[in-house]
Amino acid sequence: MASARLDARTSGRSDADASVAAAMRAAETPWPEAVPVDTGGALAAAVEHAMAAVRPWGTAHAPVFRRPCTEPG
User: What is the sign, positive or negative, of the torsion defined by CA atoms of 51, 52, 54, 57?
Assistant: First the structure.
């Protein structure tokens, strides 16, 4: 999948190409806990699948962190 995405990419600031991807694949250990997310379909379906993997309890119960309000000046 990485090589197909690299081949379809337009030129830009990154110098990563198929040889860089192959070197990374050879140097890094597999990530058995990784969860593949199909991004070829609807965005909502991909987000739902990814969120289920990282927040199995659901987003309704996710902690919300808010910064305290301070007065200007």
Answer: positive
**How far apart (Å, rounded) are the C-alpha atoms in residues 52 and 36?**
12
5 membership: H or E segment, kind and range:
helix 2-8
Judged against a pLDDT cut of 80, whether residue 54 lies above it is answered with yes
- Give backbone dihedrals phi and psi of 59, rounded to 5 degrees, phi first: -80, -20
Q: Is the pTM of this model over 0.85?
A: no
Contacts of 55 (CB under 8 A, 6+ apart): 62
Q: What is the DSSP string of 7-71?
A: HHPPP-S----HHHHHHHHHHSPP-TT------SS-HHHHHHHHHHHH-TT-GGG-----PPP--
Write down the domain spans for the chain. 2-61
